[in-house]
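Support reply, case 0932

Customer input (verbatim):
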Amino acid sequence: MRSGERYAERMSLPVAGWLAVIAAAVLAGALSNFGDMRWWRVTASVALMVAVVAGAWWLGRLRVSVAESGGEVWLHVDDAKLPMSAVAEVQVLEPVAYSDALGVAQHPLAFAVQRPWINRGLRIVLDDPDDPTPYWIVASRRPERLKAALTAARESVEA
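Our regenerated output:
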C-alpha cells in the first residue's frame, strides 16, 4: 500500500485467467500463421499474441483504494474519486445480489465498475444533492475489508 492508504486492491486476472489468455493468444497466433512461414505472417502472429496479452493486462490494471489526502478520506476507483463525506451507506453484495445489482434493474445514472472474473462487490449509496449518481457498484475480491475501511473512514469524517 502507498502512504496514507487504508485499503488497496488491484483487480488483476487470477492465475487461471492468465493461463486462458496465454492459451488463447498462442492459439490465435498459430491459426493466423497457417500456410508458409513468411516474415509478415510471423510478425502478424506475434503482434496478435502481444495484443491479446496486453489487453488482458490492461483490463486487470484497475485499482481500488481508500486513501487520505488533503485532510479527507477518498475512495479511488481507477480515475474516479469519491469523498467519504458523500457516502450515506455501504452494503456488501454477495454473488447473486451483485449480479442483480448489475442487471437491468440498475439505476441508469449509477456508477458501476466490474470485472467478469470478480463476482462480489459493494453498493455505496451516496448522499450528495449536487451529484445525480444515486450509488456506486464496485467489484471487490474482499468486499468485507473494503466495507470496513469505508465505514471507519465515514466514522472519522462524522466525528
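We compared this against your earlier run and they match. Two observations from our side: The mean pLDDT is 88. The helical segments are 15-31, 39-59, 95-101, 143-158. Please reopen the case if you see a mismatch on your end.
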